[in-house]
Design a protein that fits this description.
61% of the residues lie in helices and 22% in strands. By secondary structure, the chain is an alpha+beta fold.
Length: 501
Amino acid sequence: MIKNRYNTRFRARGQRIRWLVTVFFLITCFQNVPGMEVMTLDKALNYAFRNSPSIQEAGFSLEISERNLMAQQAGLKSQFNLTVTPYSYSSERVFNDLISKYNTQKQTRTETRLSITQPIKWTDGTLSIVERFNWQESSSSYTGPEKKSFFSNSIFLTFNQPLFTYNRTKLQLQELELALENAQLNYAIQKLVIESQVTQQFLNLYSNRRSIQIAEQEYQNADESYQIIKNKVDAGISAPGELYQADLTRANSQASLENKQIQFQNALDGFKILIGLPLGVDMEIVTDIRKSLVEIDFAKAIEHGLSHRMELRQRDINIQNALNDLVEAAAENEFKASIDVSFGLTGTNKNFSDIYTSPNTDRLIALSLNIPLFDWGRRKHRIAASNARVETRKLSAREEKKQIEYEIRQAYRNLQNQKTQIEIAEKNIVNAQLTYEINLELYRSGDLSSKDLQFYQLQLSAQQLGEVEALINYKVALLELKIRTLWDFEKNVSIIEIKKK
């Protein structure tokens, strides 16, 4: 009775798991099912580059920098400004010093002001043309109720030029250009990071799916072993205990298969989130994981990485920004001057057509000096702090260069090691396959227990999965070296040049 319950329980469990295996096989193995997304690595990367939050954030930062630079460049062009006051009326009670009495002044006014301002990038000066036209009607209680009106028009050409100081216009433009370049570098770096993450998870998905296939093979082997011992028990050749052990081994294989299927589905959902696909999309992973080894020129890897790594250029930008901060700190409370030159004509008349009958010529030449006297050492301390910041960023740049070379060396050694691991994995599979086949014959002849055969089954499965992992680890190591050096050794071409095209 106990034996019957035992057999019934395991047969029911086996039927349930076989049903799940069948369903999973139908879902994952048919690539031409309508509505299923067939996902290659290139396709996954394209999805991620469009939908990844980090890429989108880097893209927004890039757009901000581009717009700020465009706004600054637009500010270097001629600026036109028109100010119109169609109507203005005022009534004031004022004291007249001439007659020592208060009188009421009323004034109606219309005014138009047009200005054209041209910043001068090369000198940090400003050239302006200003025209002002107005009509005014006024009356005063001192002169009587009579209203007087007149037209007035003035046009001025003015020039302002700072002296003995740095060019603020050029410095601001340079800072925005550096900010844009830094944003472009950050965007490119984020794409490389996404490429690394997507590739690794994509290959891990393939590894998970391959482990399912190996688990299915392991289950088939366990089922074959069960059928062999069952025939022997039915024939009275073997003891029933061997059948129970074989059934337990088969059930464990089925349970392991079910766990791997669940793990694959969970990993698949995580991958969809990474590349920005809805979780409800059915997806099938397609990739080529065949052995394909690449020869690496180590000296070229070091040289290209140190010449083109974007992090080094970012360090250079940080140094230049620190130098700009030093310039600004040195200009704080500095001795400086400015010269203002203005020339214009002003005409007034009660008749519009006679405004410039007898114009007045206006001239202005002014030199202004700012002479700092004592600031309690504030400027000196700010300069010292800026100098220290420059040296800190130079030190950081040197250390970054060392770190990059270290990373390239490490990636190269890891890649060479993975080549060796592939060769070892291939030999292990051959040996494990032969060992299993030998012991399977021993099992069939009754010279080996089912428990011992299970050991060789698991050993074969582990070696098969080990080969897959070795191939995947090699591809990941090759990708890592590509990212560290910015050189594609499979295509023998620079990543930088590919991106420029």
